[in-house]
Design a protein that fits this description.
Blueprint (H helix, E strand, L loop, with lengths): L2 H16 L5 E12 L9 E16 L7 E6 L2 E8 L14 H12 L7 E7 L9 H17 L5 H14 L8 H8 L4 E6 L5 E5 L5 E11 L7 H15 L9 H6 L6 H25 L3 H17 L6 H13 L5 E7 L4 E9 L3 H16 L4 E5 L6 E3 L6
Parallel strand pairs: 3-5
Antiparallel strand pairs: 1-2, 1-12, 2-5, 2-6, 3-4, 6-7, 8-10, 8-11, 9-10
Length: 395
């Protein structure tokens, strides 16, 4: 569905649920990271884009005056009721409505006057695939609250408020990339984000001959050999040994000179981060120049580094990348890599738009043949960020 079609569908579901049309409709996208993995907590660069899969919230004041917010979702049975006459506190860990609850708390902390409303939530962002369904829900909630309260946030403030909601209410210590791209995405643009300065730069990707193909492996493994916290500690250890504030400040030459004194595993972790930051900057420049072969080479190099040096890939992700390499540029597949935290989830591939049908069929068939798992594939161009939609449906 297009965004307008999705908004219409969600508005109709709101009316079916609550017996009246909505007053407000807000939407925010998921994202895919084109390149720049595990660089965010090392003060590096990331290059995500918003995908044309959205979380949409349709809402209206309650039919009868009450100081509570009633949330319904197409993906969860039952309802969540948030009593605004009581202090806002996190629900039990794992409760889906902690994401919007945290955003409500953030607005309240800013002094916004919260009032009751009913809301229906519908999303086409795949859950659990590393495409930031949680950030889409947070940012859609914030966009809705801007309309409900009249408290319009600066885009950076808005992204940081949503990140704080995920930290404090959902208990997930995420970086800043997901919320920033969901807020600031623009159609036909990637977002080069400096995770130290938090300065975003839009990178045009207007060439209609290419698109991004996302393949969800439909697997998620438990972390093996130490989790993200271990890798983060290894990066901090490397930075201390190199005498820099973070690996953002290190160079390949500095790391090579320190190799004899570093634990080999720590050295490889640092090599991934240092080279990945450079690949991300190089990829942004190549996208600006529509130099797609260079972008593809950098994507493959990124995957190899994540697989071998950072060790966050898995057999299923590697299988998709191997299938992509076999199809090759002659078959219209320019580059491919795992995206997200790793150990499952999705890959992202840069493809020639005219070759999409054949590529999609080939990856789907070969991946299922190798793994016995049916993948989920969809294509996206860089999409728009969060928006308030003129209510598209009136009964």
């Amino acid at each position: 569905m297009t965004l307008n079609e999705l908004a219409t569908h969600t508005s109709k579901e709101f009316e079916r649920t609550f017996g009246r049309p909505p007053r407000w409709v807000a939407a925010a996208p998921g994202r895919v990271n084109v390149i720049g993995e595990h660089t965010d907590y090392n003060d590096g660069f990331v290059l995500p884009m918003a995908i044309d899969r959205y979380t949409v919230i349709a809402a209206a004041p309650p039919a009868k005056a009450r100081n509570a917010i009633q949330l319904r979702s197409s993906q969860v049975d039952g309802e969540a009721v948030i009593d605004l006459s009581q202090p806002l506190r996190p629900a039990p860990k794992g409760a889906w409505f902690n994401y919007p609850l945290g955003v409500l708390a953030g607005f309240a902390a800013r002094g916004a006057k919260l009032s009751g409303f009913d809301a229906f939530i519908h999303s086409t962002v795949p859950l659990g695939g590393g495409l930031s369904s949680s950030a889409a829900l947070e940012v859609a909630t914030a966009t809705l609250l801007e309309a409900v309260t009249g408290d319009k946030l600066d885009p950076v403030q808005k992204a940081l408020l949503c990140q704080q909601a995920e930290h404090e209410y959902a208990g997930m210590p995420c970086g800043i990339m997901d919320q920033f791209i969901s807020v600031m995405g623009r159609q036909d643009h990637l977002l080069l984000l400096d995770c130290r300065s938090r300065i975003p730069e839009l990178v045009p990707m207007t060439d209609p001959s290419v698109a991004l193909l996302i393949t969800n492996t439909n697997v998620k493994h438990e972390l093996t050999g130490g989790g993200y916290a271990t890798r983060r500690a290894q990066c901090q250890e490397a930075a201390r040994a190199l005498g820099v504030v973070s690996l953002r400040d290190a160079t390949a030459g500095l790391l090579e000179r320190a190799r004899p004194t570093l634990d080999p595993l720590v050295w490889r972790r640092a090599r991934h981060v240092i080279t990945e930051i450079q690949r991300t900057l190089q990829a942004a420049q190549a996208v600006r120049a529509s130099d797609w072969p260079t972008v593809g080479q950098l994507m493959y190099a990124s995957h190899a580094s994540l697989r071998d040096d950072y060790e966050v890939s898995c057999a299923e992700l590697d299988a998709v990348v191997e299938i992509a390499q076999a199809i090759g540029s002659h078959g219209g597949l320019i580059g491919c890599r795992m995206t997200g935290g790793g150990f499952g989830g999705c890959t992202v591939a840069l493809v020639r738009a005219q070759s999409l049908p054949g590529i999609t069929a080939a990856i789907s068939a070969e991946y299922e043949k190798r793994t016995g798992i049916k993948p989920s594939l969809f294509v996206s161009r860089p999409a728009a960020g969060a928006t308030l939609i003129n209510c598209p449906f009136k009964s």
